[in-house]
Amino acid sequence: MNNILYCSVCDHDYAHLIGTIEVIDNDENQAVEFMINSKYSIAIKTKYEYRSQGNIHLLFRCEEGHFFIKSFDGHKGNIFMDENTLMDELTSYLNDVYQNEKDLFFTLNYDLLGNIEKFLKTQKIY
Length: 126
Known about the structure:
By secondary structure, the protein is an alpha+beta fold. It has one domain (15-122). Helix content is 21%, strand content 34%. It has helices at 85-97, 110-122; strands spanning 15-25, 30-36, 40-42, 46-47, 56-62, 67-75, 78-81. Strands 1, 2, 3, 4, 5, 6 and 7 form a 7-stranded antiparallel sheet that branches. Strand 5 (56-62) and strand 6 form a beta hairpin. Helix 1 (85-97) crosses helix 2. The termini are far apart.
């Protein structure tokens, strides 16, 4: 039996892992840092529904061009899958930004990283 990952936007079965997003929080329902691919740090203070007891978000792109995220958030011993509204909003934002793109890419690049940071800045708590 094969278990295949399908795009959550269009159900396409060809998807590529672009990167990982780890959220570091301050235990007060606020994220303080987003670590992309364990390499790129984006320091933004924003609301975050879960405490960092093991969270990871996997960013994918299907061959139809849609971005989607599989989320895993830990809280008090429970792992919540795909229940992260911030990651859902990031997915929608990326799909809007890249909707008319002609040349698809399937790796993390600085343009994508910049767009992730732009989105997070719109979520910033002042």
